[in-house]
Amino acid sequence: MLIYDIKYNLRMTTILAEIKKGNIGTTIELVIQKPVDPAQPLGSKTPVQLSSYSTIQFEFEQPSGKRLSPVTASIKTTPLGLDGVATYTDNIGIFTSTSRWKVRPILRTSGGSIFKGSWVGFSVSD
What we know:
Largest sheet: 6 strands, mixed
Radius of gyration: 15 Å
Helix content: under 10%
Number of helices: 0
Oligomer: single chain
């Protein structure tokens, strides 16, 4: 089994400049990448082709350390997701507290393999 070091960046695409506690409709985008050379995990990265995965999820961790159940994300640039950008819009208001949150992608193949990405932090304010 080939294991990828999946790294990504948090990009917010809302009208607001930052994520606010209690907002509904916040969109989170992750750019999911893997090393060009798996033997050099800190070297150059290339986007993951998201259409190779049957399920794309985001897992959020609250400032308290409690992890929320993973949510289903989607490919931003369909049909193939060649740029590695996955997106999720919070329609229920999951950001219930301020401070430093974390997020990571979880990718699943139709064959049952699961690849969990690295955590990345972001701030939620009042």
